Please model this.
Amino acid sequence: MPEPAPDGATTLAPASAAPQILLGIDFGLRRIGLAVGDTITRRARPRPALQVAAGRAPGEAEFQRIARELRDSGASRIVVGCPYNEDGSRGALATRAAQFAAELGRRHGLPVHLVDERYSSLEATAALRTMRADGTRRSRVGKPDIDSAAAAVILERWLAGEGQPGTTTTR
Model:
């Protein structure tokens, strides 16, 4: 049964009885990394990152592309990385990510979970460089690749239960 979180939101365990597909998001002001995963394999795969128009925050075009990704993937939940400061406090970007997550929940009527994304880009970069070095990845590693690989890291953290307790769910 869901438990109330300290802020009054509901927390849910990552796994439920029915298999689910999830969309993972690495929120950013320049790019938004995307990944799709499921509760059966508990693995996520990167999807092409969204480029945010220069000089503005994510807007209608990005929300429409995310809506398309939700439709195409069949995702029934969204997991958004929340970039907390190193000391665990919320900075300006974490607040914007939470607002973005709330808007996704409002627009799509799906559960949206926030997960601490600290060091996800470093983890993604290291994994991509290893793949490149051992030949399993042939193409160069660019920033959009890192953002989407970070979205996969964030989603896999949630699937592994790292979002518990304190995963915020909004609708």
Observations:
- The beta strands are 3-4, 10-11, 21-26, 31-38, 44-51, 77-82, 112-116, 168-170.
